[in-house]
Amino acid sequence: AKVGDRHDTAHHGADRGIGMCFDDAALHEHLTVAENLDSAALARHEPPDRRTARVNSLAATLGLSTLLSRKPATLSAGERRRTAVGRAFIRSPDLVLLDEPFANLDRGNRFTVRQMVRELQRSTGAMAIMVTHDPTDALAIADDMLVLINGRARAHGPAVDIAARPIDIEVAQLVDDLGMHALELHGDAAPAGCSISSEFLANARTAANSAHLLLGLRPWQIRAGVPQKPAISVDARIIAHEPAGLFTDVIATRADGRALRARLPAREAQELPTTGVARFHIHEEDIHIFAAPWPGRRIR
Predict the structure, then answer these.
(1) Which contacts qualify for 147-151: CB closer than 8 Å, 24 or more apart?
(2) Tens digit of pLDDT for each residue in 93-126?
(3) pLDDT for 280 beyond 70
(4) Which of 13, 43, 235, 249 is most exposed, with the fewest beta carbons within 10 Å of its own?
(5) Which segments of the chain belong to CATH 2.40.50.100?
(6) Could you read off the pLDDT of 44-67 as tens digits, one per residue?
């Protein structure tokens, strides 16, 4: 393995300039918070006063100053995670490996620890590699993203680009926390319960040079009602409302039995009957076009 201009496998572990944060925090249960933070720097044989100053400075950044004498068993999940993150960065490493660093954290702690990781990464200048199954965490932290599916690299590039223009539908379903619906088109027939603009369909087939298409629909871009010129309209039977603060996820079943999720403004969702059939639509500019077969190849 090469980090920067050196091959780190040729160096002793203590000299490799690599920090590690494990998915279960992996704190030393017999040590205090201060000793856990300091443990990553012990092998460098720095003077005790320098190590103490470094621990105190990092603890202040992480909000751990009042907890330095505590043992891990007395800490909350968020406090344990902050200690583990601090230990990974305390040596100002060249590379930090973060394995599910926000696992098992509630919403508030997740936001706080994410912010701390960003601040530590920027202040130390370390390159960070994070493994996560949560697309929200990945997009909040990452500059570049590598998407693995079945152990193989499927997409790699700037995180914002992969999220905005996923290479196929499986990638889209992984990098968006609401996923992506797929409509499969064969010939001239639209899926049951769907109406597709003939002009849009002709343009999509021309772009793909095929009559076999996959159309990707993101739940947060689906709207209810009948606009003047929708590219796609879908009739679906509503089965549930899932409130999400200012928005509500409306869960429905399409005519072919497949689920449809639409994230709507809460007031708009309240107007839809819980057990009735509603019409949903999506505009042309919000539709992702892929050449079939599954999982598709991005056309537009």
Answers:
(1) 147/171, 147/174, 147/175, 149/174
(2) 899 999 999 988 888 889 999 999 999 999 989 9
(3) yes
(4) 13
(5) 176-298
(6) 677 888 889 999 999 999 999 999
CATH fold, domain 176-298, is: OB fold (Dihydrolipoamide Acetyltransferase, E2P) (2.40.50)
List Cα–Cα distances, 5 to 17, 19, 89, 194, in angstroms.
Answer: 12, 18, 20, 56
CATH 3.40.50.300 at 2-142, yes or no:
yes
Rounded to whole angstroms, the Cα distance separating 169 from 225 reads 26
Question: What tokens were used for 291?
Answer: 């050449």
Q: Are 201 and 215 in contact (CB under 8 A)?
A: no
Ramachandran category for residue 125: left, alpha or beta (phi over 0 → left; psi -120 to 50 → alpha) = left
Structure tokens at 8: 């780190």
**13 or 156, which is more confident:** 156
- Tokens representing 201? 């369909």
What separation in angstroms does the CA of 144 have from each of 21, 72, 117? 19, 33, 16
Tell me the DSSP string of the chain. -EETTEEGGGS-GGGS-EEEE-TT----TTS-HHHHHHHTTGGGT--HHHHHHHHHHHHHHHT-GGGTT--GGGS-HHHHHHHHHHHHHTT--SEEEEESTTTT--HHHHHHHHHHHHHHHHHHT-EEEEE-S-HHHHHHH-SEEEEEETTEEEEEEEHHHHHHS-SSHHHHHHHSTT--EEEEEBTTBPPTTEEE-HHHHHHHHHHHTSS-EEEEE-GGG-EES--SS-SEEEEEEEEEEEEETTEEEEEEEETTS-EEEEEEEHHHHHTS-SSSEEEEEE-GGG-EEEESSTT-EE--
**Which segments of the chain belong to CATH 3.40.50.300?**
2-142
